[in-house]
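Quick check before the chapter quiz. The format below is the same one you will see on the exam, so make sure you can read both the input and the output lines.
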Amino acid sequence: QLQLVESGGGLVQPGGSLRLSCAVSSPLSLDYYSIGWFRQAAGKEREGVSCLGTGGRTNVYLESVEGRFTISRDVNKDVVYLQMFSLKPEDTGVYYCAARDYLVTLCGPNSIEPTYWGQGTQVTVSP
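Here is the expected output.
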């Protein structure tokens, strides 16, 4: 059973930075899963922020975070990161790490719903 634990959220001023971490616990290799970061702001639908590229494809980013956020993974530690720069108030929300078995599209067009979810970490961008 896959377990995902997020950390690194907090309160930051506009223009600031945060790095979120998702610790992945699984009897299988991280390569078996498709993994991404999602967020949900109060009163809004959840959206895919960024997903690791699979099957040789590049990483996927929500248009509004392109150039400001970077998703990466540490293969030695089984951790997936979301580095966030130039944060804006509209980036505020609960950020979730999520995954699904096999190489599938979790972010962007024709995406499918992740199966596994972490508990979420709050990110608040405010003066």
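If your answer matched, good. The chain has a mean pLDDT of 93.
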